[in-house]
Write a structure and sequence with these properties.
Blueprint lengths: L3 E7 L7 H19 L4 E7 L4 H10 L4 H11 L3 E9 L2 E2 L1 H8 L10 E8 L7 H12 L3 E2 L4 E4 L8 H23 L14 H9 L2
Parallel strand pairs: 1-2, 1-3, 3-5, 5-6, 5-7
Antiparallel strand pairs: 3-4
Helix pairs in contact: 1-6, 2-4
Length: 207
């Protein structure tokens, strides 16, 4: 059976970061869920903080540096995407949005996505549904029903909130694994021609 490719995008700014921690847990849970279904998975994690300068330069020039080009290819060629961002001022981070902005608008068409977010308090969790989910819906990706938010209290010792986070992670991972299994993507090539090259030449020569 073909190995499924999972791209993980973490937009955390610090190192280490709770955003990366959540991204890793979501990836591990998704891989484990796929394994129970007899499916192997290959995970590639992208730290946007390492690409911040390349992303800015791409926005200014329209051309990605090699490292950014590799990251874009990883995301657009994946069978599933786990995207995790910190919440700043009630929405996704500027770095996260800038990375999405340099992706070809058609390249995420049909891509299963598990959305994750981190923030100081649980009141920021609504940003998943009113800010991040519409972003992926606009790009015609397929966000799973469950979005996983982790507040600072979720990483503490004991308590109901700490116990609830693994359940949310597991539910989101099951939904993503299931969607990956049932989705057959046709990866969009931004350089593909609408008509055969010979036909285009014929039009130029008047044939």
């Amino acid at each position: 059976m073909t190995t499924k490719r999972i791209a993980v995008v973490s937009a955390g700014l610090s190192q280490p970061s709770s955003t990366r921690l959540l991204a890793d847990r979501l990836a591990d849970a998704t891989v484990a869920e796929l394994q129970t279904q007899g499916v192997d998975a290959e995970v590639t994690t992208i730290e946007l903080r390492d690409l911040a300068h390349d992303i800015t330069n791409n926005l200014l020039t329209g051309f990605p540096a090699p490292a950014l080009a590799s990251a874009l290819e990883t995301v657009t060629g994946a069978d599933g995407l786990i995207a995790v961002t910190p919440i700043f001022t009630t929405s996704y981070s500027g770095l996260f949005k800038s990375f999405i902005d340099v992706i070809d608008p058609q390249a995420l068409d049909g891509l299963p996505v598990l959305i994750g977010a981190t923030g100081g308090t649980a009141r920021h969790s609504l940003a998943i549904d009113y800010a991040i989910r519409p972003l992926f819906a606009y790009l015609h990706a397929q966000p799973v029903t469950t979005g996983v938010f982790a507040a600072s209290a979720d990483w503490g010792d004991g308590g109901d909130t700490v116990k609830a986070l693994p359940a949310r992670i597991g539910r989101g991972a099951r939904e993503l694994a299931s969607l990956i299994q049932t989705t057959e993507r046709v990866v969009h090539d931004p350089f593909a021609l609408d008509r055969p090259f010979g036909h285009l030449l014929g039009g130029l020569t008047g044939e």
